[in-house]
Amino acid sequence: MVKLDKIYTKAGDSGKTRLSTGEPVDKWHPRVTAYGTVDETNAALGVAALHADGEMLTAIRRIQNDLFDLGADLATPDRGKKLEWEPLRIVAAQVTRLETEIDTMNEAIAPLDSFILPGGSALAAQLHVARTLCRRAERQIAELSSHEGEIVSPEALAYANRLSDWLFVAGRAANNNGVDDIKWVPGANR
After folding, report:
1. Quick check: is 8 in a domain?
2. pLDDT tens-digit profile of 5-32?
3. Range of the domain at 112
4. Closest by Cα among 98, 82, 79 to 90
5. CB atoms within 10 A of CB 36
């Protein structure tokens, strides 16, 4: 259980922070950058939720919770040492759920015949903002995993990858199942 009784500690005033293990790192450490962008994605979904209802709102709220799981996963590095607690990790079932939901949403949407511009309805536009942030988080997670000694589970990276796909399809669903998508017109303004 998390208990935060003091919001500011001044510990970060020197440009350092601590991972969930207590390990001190620079605030620009690739691990902090990755979970920070996961948090940005979550905040964008909070705005998207203002425009959602029903199943879409339920899915967004569930994904926001999953994003906290992903942040916790990334904030707890696997250093090959036993921790005093069981670290929270993204699991394959979370990735599979996204895939199932993508397939279900896609059944009602015509295939693309053009790239689409981010926008349309307010919900679709905000889902596209979240998608671009999620893609950045995905790149940062992949970069983190390339650093020596920085282990990232395959499920964590897969979740970020699949979520960006989910957000794209959800954006199309929010645009009247793709009917109100705004198509890219190559060279339209030459």
Report:
1. no
2. 677 777 778 889 999 999 999 999 999 9
3. 22-78+86-177
4. 98
5. 19
Is the residue at 11 inside a domain? no
Give the distance, in angstroms, between the CA of residue 6 and the centroid of all CA atoms in the same chain. 27
29 is a domain residue: yes
pLDDT tens track for 62-113: 999 999 999 999 999 998 888 999 999 999 999 999 999 999 999 999 999 9
Other beta carbons within 10 Å of 10: 6
Q: From CA 100, how far away is CA 170, in angstroms rounded? A: 13
123-138 in b/e burial notation, b at 16+ Cβ within 10 A?
A: bbbbbbbbbebbbbbb
Q: Are 59 and 71 in contact (CB under 8 A)?
A: no
What is the residue-wise DSSP string for 13-37?
GGSEEE-TTS-EEETT-HHHHHHHH
Distance (Å, rounded) from C-alpha 105 to C-alpha 84? Answer: 41
User: Which CATH number fits the domain that encloses residue 139?
Assistant: 1.20.1200.10
Cα 137 versus chain centre, distance: 7
In a domain, 48, yes or no: yes
User: Is residue 138 within 8 Å of residue 157, measured between CB atoms?
Assistant: yes
Say how many domains are in the chain: 1
